[in-house]
Amino acid sequence: MNPFNHSKRDNVPADTVQDRRGPSPRSALAGMQPYVPGRSISDIKAEYGLERVVKLASNENPLGPSPLAMQAVRGLLSDMHRYPDDRAGQLRSKLAAKLSLPASGIIVANGADELITLICEAYLEPGDRIVTYAPTFSEYAFGGRLMNADTIAVPLVDSFALRAEDLLSEADARTKLVFVCSPNNPTGTYMPKTELEHLRSRLPDGCLLVLDAAYSHFADAADYTDGFELLRSGARLVVLQTFSKAYGLAGIRAGFAAGPADVIAHLLAVKEPFNVNALAQAAAAAALDDEAHLEATLRTNAEGRIRLRNGLGSLGIRSVPSQSNFVLANFADGAAHVYGELLRRGIIVRSGAGWGLPDCLRISVGTAEEIDLLLASLSDILQVAPVTPCESDARRQADPSKRQV
Ligand SMILES: *Cc1c(COP(=O)(O)O)cnc(C)c1O
C-alpha cells in the first residue's frame, strides 16, 4: 500500500470509505452552489457523435487567441521550470503605461474571477453585505457566500436598465462592496457614465464600488465608461478587467484590477505569491501589443452583433440591445426545447434558467459563418421562414405569448 495515498485505504475506493473522521467544512460551504460553465465542445461531440460543434456559450473570442500571444508562450516553454514573477512586474508596468495609471494601482490575477474572490477575502467579515443586481455574473454572490456575507441582489426591471438608485437604496452601513457588471452579463445592458458617477459619489463611506468591465471593449455607446477615466481623476473604485474575452486568452487565465493604491495593497496582501503563471503573464503582455488582433475582434463583434440581432428579429425572436459580445434572446416557453435542439445540431448556447430567465438563451456573437449556421438551425427548429423586420413586428404583435425581455 502506498503510504502517501490517503484516498485509498486497503484498496477500498475512496467513495466507499466509511471513515469520516476529520474536521467539518466551514458552515459557509453548505450554501455554496457550484459554478455551471458552458458545455464543452468535446463533450457535445462525444454525446451526439458530431464532427463539428460551434460553441456560442461562454463569450470566448471567435477569432482565437492573438498570434503574438501564441508566439510569446512558445518562446517561454523552455523556461517553465522557473517560478513566475510574483507581481507580474512587466505586465503590470505595461498596463500602467497604457492606462496612464500608477503601477501601484494595478494587480494582475489568475483571471477576473480570482480578483472577485480576493476582493471578498480582503474586505468581508461574516454578516457584512454585498449589493449587486440580478441577473448578473454569479461570482459576486459566490465571493460573498465564501466569506459568510449576505448578498443583496436588486432585480433588474424595465428593460434590464442598470439604475444607480436601486443599488443606493440597498447600500447600508453593513454594505462593504457594491458590484456593478457593465456591460452586464447576461443582459448586455450597461450603466451610463453619469449614473456610475452618481452611484459612486453617493455610496456610504465604508463601501467600495467594484466595476466589472470584463466586456468593456465591446461597448460602443457614447455614454459608456470602463471606469479608467474615473480612476485617473482620483475617484475611489475598483475596475476589473480580463484577458479572457476581447483578448482571446480564456484558457490561460489572466485578468487585472485597477484601483486606489491602498485597495490594491489589500488585494496583494491576500493573494498567493505565484497566482499568475509565467505563460499567462507573457501571453497577456503580448496580446496587449497586438492591436491588429483586437481591432479584428471588435470589428467582427460589432458586425456580428447586428447580424445576430437582425437574424433573430427576422425569425420573430426578440433580443435585448447588447453592448457586449453576446445577445440575450427570448424564446418564450420554447427556450428549453430550442436549447436542446441546438445542442443536437452541434450548437452550444447558454440557458438563461440559471439566472432565473427560463425563457431566454444567451448567445455569444460568433463569426458571420457561425451566426448563419445558428440562424439556419433556429429557422429549422422553429419551422419559420425568415421574414422582413416589418413583417416580424406584425407577427410579434399578433402573438401575445412572446414576452419582451
Ligand atoms: C467572463 C467574465 C469575467 C472574466 O473571467 P476570467 O476569470 O478573467 O476568465 C469576469 N466578469 C464577468 C462578468 C465575466 O463574464
UniProtKB/TrEMBL annotation:
A Pfam family: Aminotran_1_2
State which pathway it belongs to: Amino-acid biosynthesis; L-histidine biosynthesis; L-histidine from 5-phospho-alpha-D-ribose 1-diphosphate: step 7/9
Keyword presence, Amino-acid biosynthesis: yes
Transferase is among the record's keywords: yes
The Aminotransferase class I/classII large domain extends over: 52-377
Ranges for the region named Disordered are 1-33
- Protein's name in the database: Histidinol-phosphate aminotransferase
Reaction(s) catalysed by this chain, per the record, are: L-histidinol phosphate + 2-oxoglutarate = 3-(imidazol-4-yl)-2-oxopropyl phosphate + L-glutamate
Entry GO MF terms: histidinol-phosphate transaminase activity
Give the required cofactors: pyridoxal 5'-phosphate
Give the residue spans that cross the bilayer.
none
